[in-house]
Amino acid sequence: MPSRVRAEQLYARACRTIAGGVSSDARRMAGTPLFIDRAAGAQMWDVDGNRLLDYVLGQGPNLLGHAAPVVVKAVTEQVARGVAYSAQHELEAEVAERICAMVPGAEKVRFNTVGSEAVHGALRLARGLTGRPKIVKFEGNYHGWLDPVLYSVHPDLALAGEAARPNAVPGSAGLTPHAGDDLIVLPYNDLAAVRACFSRFDGQIAAVICEPLLCNTGAIMPVPGFLEGLRDLCTSAGALLVFDEIITGFRLAAGGAQEFFGVTPDLAAFGKAMAGGMPVSAIAGRAPVMDAIADGRVAHAGTFNSQPVAMAAAAAVLSTLDEQRDTIYPPMHQVGQWLMAGIREAAERHDLPVLVSGPGAVFQVYLTESSDVRDYRDFAACDRPRMARLHELLLDRGINTVPRGLWFLSTAHTAAHVEETLQAVDEAFAVL
Ligand SMILES: Cc1ncc(COP(=O)(O)O)c(C=O)c1O
Known about the structure:
The protein has two domains: 5-67 and 325-431, Aspartate Aminotransferase, domain 1 (Alpha-Beta Complex), CATH 3.90.1150; 69-323, Type I PLP-dependent aspartate aminotransferase-like (Major domain) (Aspartate Aminotransferase, domain 2). Helix content is 38%, strand content 16%. The chain has helices at residues 5-17, 69-79, 90-102, 115-130, 191-200, 226-237, 256-261, 287-294, 308-323, 325-349, 376-380, 384-396, 415-431, and strands at 36-40, 43-46, 51-54, 108-112, 134-138, 161-162, 165-166, 183-186, 205-210, 240-245, 267-270, 281-285, 354-357, 362-367, 399-400, 406-408. The strands form four sheets. Strands 4-12-11-10-9-5-8 form a seven-stranded mixed β-sheet, with helices on both faces. It has a four-stranded mixed β-sheet with strand order 1-2-3-15. It has a three-stranded antiparallel β-sheet with strand order 13-14-16.
């Protein structure tokens, strides 16, 4: 067991003045949360000097690895020129042009700081443009922590209702009392349910929003025809299709999930990987849709929007991803696939019921007898306590993964890291 003495001291100190001792609920852990001293490439070192091989990567953003030289250089140079102008500058046009060149559905963009804001803006645009109230979201999908969408992410099954007709279950106390009234929650990967919903609420649905690869509940691929079906249904009903690409954007491919799966939404929200760890997000979509912001019908604002340091990081990251796409994406998926195959082999050796799925650059390890996880109910049926135990066992062996079983890859992860990781997986499986 690695020593965590300093982390425990810092946690005790933090608990005195920071509510719960952490700054985001996502950082809560069963015991002492991680306290990091520094990070570089695929590695982090905690305040007790323990080295971690990192598959969390800041919950996804560090696609080029921690402290990637291009990001450090761009940020350092920009800091000396000022960090907050609240005025226009050249870098933001450069980033916007780059996004429009990379992302199939992007003709115009607007910047924000975090993913939750970009999603919020996209849904406001959809309602503003269509004049309709209702939004369809899918159970198990996470779209940020703001009231209108914080429903049915990982709901208590006792409250969640029938799998085919899920209830909208609030994800927090204190949401605006009627925030969920115009939210319709449907099962992921169930096109028939979406079709039925469009007939039932004819002319009332402004948008369907989804994670095109569901990464907040495993790493669940859309079943063949699901995204295409959503596209067709939205088009024929005059509703907007919104992809939440906060995780998938610039991670699955240079053009995000829309390039990877070949389905183009009307609007998409980007964040995380677009700026190498600097906080920046974007709403990107078809020009006629984005023009509802351009002409002032739909309000969009933010003190830190297109903050120049974040834009400098985004410009550096996106130009790297765009210009080196052939040497970035195939190897990153490949390293992930090696890891996935090695985990499957280790599970067989130890006779453990393990399912590993995902495209490679992001994937999920489930403990389940099932050979397919298609939606939240399948995920909820997995052995989640044992998945949490696996996370702890790996962490004790210097491997940092997202506690619910998700793994993110970066361009800094190598075949040697894979070998080292599989050694730890083997030991952890032996204990499990
Ligand atoms: C798919 C998805 N959408 C939206 C968000 C919210 O982004 P942020 O935490 O930057 O507000 C997240 C965060 O993890 C996410 O995974």
